[in-house]
Amino acid sequence: MSTIDVGKRLRPDGETLAWLALVFTTEFLIVAAYVLVFDVAIRDWTLFVVPFVWINVAGWAIYHTTPAPSLARRRRIAGAIAGGYFLLLSYFGGIFAVHSHDHGPVGGFTVDFVGLPPGWSPSLLYTGEMVHLVFLPYKVIGYIALAYLVYKTALDASSAIFGGLVGIFSCVSCSFPLIAGIVTGVVGGGSALAAATAQSSYLLSTVVFVITVGLLYWQPSIRGVVSR
To answer: Where are the domains of the chain?
Structure first.
């Protein structure tokens, strides 16, 4: 695959542009309705933009990614790798935390449909005896997309001639969101939801997420360019 092929993958066709226009318009209307109905004073537009960046990039990557046909055993191995990666992302990204039974009071489920902007809500907070869960839709969708790309990468790495190069890119790119989760300190007991919405956290996480999706998605193009 050449640099020309990379350009083709970056250049959207007419149908894609039409869908993008529809998606962006719908998202704008959702945000506008939220602001008007609940009389929200907007102090930081990034709160409304960030979740849709994750959702749009995740949906685009999943839609344009088709795993190569492979044997059932290889698919199971790749699936296990992707599943483990999703759990790591969820842990370091603050979706869940594991703690001892004496960590604090058990609060049960709390569901919030309007307390946070669209994409952050409907949020779900659960505090159990062993597990603390913070469900933010945009982040869960994004991590699913990354896991799916890792699944495809695992299949490619097991059969491609440039498997070693794929492994290097996978290792580096897949570790980005894990490192970001540690650095930004998203994980953390009862304060996880507050930490997850901290500006320094979600902006860095968004940049890391987009870069990671790009590295994982364009690996075939990168391999083709290097092979030349």
So the answer is: 3-227
